[in-house]
Amino acid sequence: MSRIHDPAQLRRLIRDKSFDRPTTGQAGGYLQGNLVVLPKRFADDFLGFCVNNPKPCPLLGVSRPGERGIATLGEDLDIATDVPFYRVFSREGRRDRVADLSNVWRDDLVSFVIGCSFSFEESLQRARIPVRHIEAGRNVPMYVTNIPTRASGPFHGPLVVSMRAFSPADAIRAIVLSDRQPLAHGAPVHIGDPAQIGIKDFDNPEFGDPPVLEPGDIPVFWACGVTPQMAIHNAGPDIAITHEPGHMLVTDVPAEGASIGLNAAH
Amino acid sequence: MSRIHDPAQLRRLIRDKSFDRPTTGQAGGYLQGNLVVLPKRFADDFLGFCVNNPKPCPLLGVSRPGERGIATLGEDLDIATDVPFYRVFSREGRRDRVADLSNVWRDDLVSFVIGCSFSFEESLQRARIPVRHIEAGRNVPMYVTNIPTRASGPFHGPLVVSMRAFSPADAIRAIVLSDRQPLAHGAPVHIGDPAQIGIKDFDNPEFGDPPVLEPGDIPVFWACGVTPQMAIHNAGPDIAITHEPGHMLVTDVPAEGASIGLNAAH
């Protein structure tokens, strides 16, 4: 299947089960988001966690309780149907993979959409900066650091980072380009020695695939969207829903010069 | 003597010999420039050298032959009197230190004003990023690299870089802040291992003072205004005039959002 350029069209295909793959590389130029759905009882504290930790949790949008739409991200957008696959977590530790949330939807659910690194990686590739894990067909390596997040109520935990390695000259350009996309995690949080942020086994990341480095490369570490997932696990809500990794919520918000509520529908 | 905030007032004091010290820290918020004065015969090639190498040679202004003013940098500005001390180089290798160029001025001299790192270091300090050589009361260390410049006529030579060391988190901020000041050398050209750009003896820079590093620091290298001086030496004009290091030409151009010809007088 060829690439789909229009985010609204892609959401319709996903809704109709005509598109059921990762959204990587689709709807280029538009922000994609991590999805987090929590009961209203936890929503205020999780909102506080995002506001306290904008680098790992750049907020693209929040729904009203029970509502499945977030008009600022896309006029027709339906949280419960527009992600190819969801993960539904129960407090008992069950994890279900579902393609539609309609059967588990509740009137007290609040949806949070959090920026992800896809649009930033797109801008690296447009600038002809090699993104080594993509070229190697791997997932990005992600590490748990010794940097604490700022807790909010029951939400707490360490900062998780993703790592991309570059030649020093490309690392400088990647830092500058990523700083221009604060809704895609912004500038990195660390460069160089992994041990300085508590990474003990660089070759074996906690999440994703092992790192890819060329001789002379310098590792660059960005705040990662897995950070809120660890904080949610620590908070222990009775239900939590996220997207399946790589299967993101595609929005109508242009990635460059993004300004929520001005670019999208009404 | 207290700080002088107004660049035009500072130039008047320099012109009257009432201010004869380095201009570091004076007229905060305004661009200061390296001065290069060459005979017209060499001017086109040197202009080409600056255009070919904008990181070491960000052009703030160029005079017409024989003219001592550059109105876009300051309405009243007089190249021949408004720098505290000049260096006058002859082809025979003589170097004179003079406080006024009136006696050596010629009708064929063309003046080039090239951005320097002062305004960038100011913005680091405003962002509370420690600039170690300033805190240690030292000059910045400068190194000859194995990176060639793009030659223009007789002007050629290696890229010279200045080095500032930071904690990794501050290095990221310094990269982002410096990128916003393309007229003050812009983003760095290298980070990390000095040997990768041909620096063999990091503790003994070719110019300036030895480096100051704290544990865990990462060295960051910016293109440096000494680069054109080496290229001028290689070109061998019969006369060349520069500012005495630290004694810069102070302009009316605001450092932030600088746009030559729009901000300054008419």
Could you explain the architecture of this structure?
The structure is a homodimer of 266-residue chains. In chain A, strands 1, 2, 3, 4, 5, 10 and 11 form a 7-stranded antiparallel beta sheet that branches. Chain A has a 4-stranded antiparallel beta sheet with strand order 6-7-9-8. Residues 262-266 of chain A have low confidence and may be disordered. Chain A has helices at residues 7-15, 40-52, 118-126, 132-135, 168-179, 226-235; strands at residues 30-39, 59-62, 86-90, 95-98, 109-115, 142-148, 158-166, 190-191, 218-223, 239-243, 249-254. Chain A has 2 domains: 7-116 and 237-254, PSTPO5379-like, CATH 3.40.1640; 118-227, PSTPO5379-like domain (PSTPO5379-like fold). The longest helix of chain A is centred in the first third of the chain and has 13 residues, at 40-52. With 266 residues, chain A is α+β, with helices and mostly antiparallel strands. In chain A, a hairpin with a 4-residue loop joins strand 3 and strand 4. The A-B interface holds A 168-169, 171-173, 175-176, 179, 187-193, 196, 216, 218 and B 168-169, 171-173, 175-176, 179, 187-193, 196, 216, 218.
Features of this protein?
homodimer, 266 residues, alpha+beta, PSTPO5379-like, PSTPO5379-like fold, 2 domains, 4-stranded antiparallel sheet, 11 strands
